[in-house]
Amino acid sequence: MKTLYKHLLATTLFILAPALIFPMDSYAQGGNPADWPPVKREPHKQAKCLLCGRYSIIYNIYVDKINDAEQTLREIQIEVYEDDQFISKDKANIAAIEAADGKDLAARLATANKVLQNDENDRARHAQEEINKQNEIDGLNGSKFAALQELTNCERSCLTEEKKTSMFPGTGAGSDYFASSGFEKLNGWYAHVGLPYQQFSNNSTTFAASSTNNNYNVSTSYHPNYDLGIGYHLPGRDSNIALDYTHLYGSDTSNVWDGSLTLSPGTTGPVNWAASRVTFNYDSLDLTAGHLINQGIRFAIYYYGGLNYTRFTKDVNIWGNGLGNTVFNQIGTSYNGFGPTFGMDGYCHPFDDFPNFSFYGGVQPSLLFGTMTGYQRTTINDVLTVESIPNERLVVPVLGSKLGINYDLPYKTMKWNLQLGYRLTELFGVTKDNNSYTTPVNASFQGPYFNLGVGF
Questions:
Q1: How far is 16 from 13, CA to CA, in rounded Å?
Q2: Average pLDDT over every residue of 128-137
Q3: Which 3 state secondary structure label does DSSP give 298?
Q4: Residues 313, 334: contact at Cβ < 8 Å?
């Protein structure tokens, strides 16, 4: 009977020894952690109102950190389990060596004990890593809970303010950036109207040259124009589809007196007075789809791509008289192109006290395939000459860029958005030089703009 008790006691100690010698591991509750189901990743929490975006992002940052830490913890637990398997094998190996005996017993036991010691050291190190990782997860859970409380408090505050029907409810943050128009994301339709104040470059607007080789160009001014846009945000995603239209128009006039002038194109004249009016028209239509990627609390990047249609025209009228001549020249080009466009906008919220305020910047390259048409008519002393100009197929690269400030004004179930910025667009080889129809030249426009957006 005593022998039976000894066997029962030995068996019990053998089973409980790992728990008595080492800290209790979570894998012991369910066998090999490698056989457990995959670690479940907690999903992100979406803000329940428009003003809670900032607190939602903070909460989700801790969710991501906890998800990563729990995956690392699982890997450590697997290493601890494997260490225990190695230790068991090492002990069985030592027992086998002792039972076999032999002349080199001491050397073989020394080697086997050294392997056991190394495995036990690894086991102790991994066990401590498991404890440290679990403590890290506990701390992150505390921070996540605090962020959840902030989010809950903000949502309650927002609901209270909405009941008051205040024009600018709450003090929450609008960190949900959005769309090619810069408008913040909402689960539904949005629209914007823009007022660009743009100046076309006076590149290739030379209309007269003096006998002393002074060339005279038309001085271009800034002109008010408009942008229109409509889009739809895909529910539950940071993605959207947008249709944006831009119309720009500019017409400017310059004149000059000189003892002897020749007029473009060529050297018609001479005259002693000349004037010119240059008129630009630009129409652009974008159909794009995009996706927003948040880069933490303060930064976000919006990528988009799609198709663009552009129409660009330049019409130049040149008058001259004096020195016995009356001259009227007309020169113009028109380009219609269609092709792919893509872009990237970046947003930065630098101020914690003003979460609805942000800086932004972006670039948008396009590659257009289309046809240029042109005309050239010269009237000298009532004699009309018409130049035949063939159509030309052209590939026109376009590069647009912008920089500005953005402010969001949430109101009930809508969100208003204000933008003030500066943009520059360059169209490469889209028109021709006044003096030489065979010489392609660029066209560009630049200036400030204001956008007003609303989402539903």
A1: 5
A2: 90
A3: coil
A4: yes
